[in-house]
Specification:
heterodimer; B: mainly beta; 0% helix
Chain lengths: 114, 111
């Protein structure tokens, strides 16, 4: 089944403890992206990647890192999480340039930082 | 600066009503505008619009784009409780592959 998977789905952690949220897609998509969703602010893009080893900042990249060593995987790294990073996170992918087609979203990761 | 503004922010209707959701945008170099539906979890794709005046239709949902006035509408006829969701519109930033979403319209359809 074609899908985007994220792990973990739920995570409660403490301030400063490094964490990684994994994202994987099995559709051979070139474009992958991370978003966070907060009440009243909608979906905001954190980072995106056009292909392996090619990443760029979205609207809200501060406090996050990403890497794209393989086409299928695009992990999101929080080196020192803070409470303002408590949010619902979505990974998404699309075949190529997302201006030409839909993005497929993962199921989401709800992160709470205390 | 590129931006997307959706209205209304929320809407409550009864089954059978017709609703119109609005998305206005500002972009230097328009390429496409997309609509997504978000129920309990992840957004799912509805429509992509690239040309002005062409209506995209899927069952009771339809959408049209006005490139001159810089807006798009999403119409839902004969609403059902299953249409209750957040509806999001989005477009790519000018000159990049960044993506911007509006804050969404939360639609609630009462039985």
């Amino acid at each position: 089944e074609a899908q985007v998977t994220q792990n973990p789905r739920y995570l409660i952690t403490v301030t400063g403890k490094k964490l990684t949220v994994t994202c994987s897609q099995n559709m051979n998509h070139e474009y992958m992206s991370w978003y966070r969703q907060d009440p009243g602010l909608g979906l905001r893009q954190i980072y995106y990647s056009m292909n392996v080893e090619v990443t760029d900042k979205g609207d809200v990249p501060e406090g996050y890192k990403v890497s794209r060593k393989e086409k299928r995987n695009f992990p999101l790294i929080l080196e020192s999480p803070s409470p303002n990073q408590t949010s619902l996170y979505f990974c998404a992918s699309s075949f190529a340039d997302p201006t030409t087609g839909e993005q497929y979203f993962g199921p989401g990761t709800r992160l709470t930082v205390t | 600066e590129d931006k997307v503004v959706q209205s209304p922010l929320s809407l409550v209707v009864h089954e059978g009503d017709t609703v119109t959701l609005n998305c206005s945008y500002e972009v230097t170099n328009f390429r496409s505008l997309l609509w997504y539906k978000q129920e309990k979890k992840a957004p799912t794709f509805l429509f992509m619009l690239t040309s002005s005046g062409i209506e995209k239709k899927s069952g009771r949902l339809s959408s049209i784009l006005d490139k001159k006035e810089l807006f798009s509408i999403l119409n839902i006829t004969a609403t059902q409780t299953g249409d209750s969701a957040i509806y999001l519109c989005a477009h790519p930033f000018s000159g990049t592959y960044k993506y911007i979403f509006g804050t969404g319209t939360r639609l609630k359809v009462l039985a």
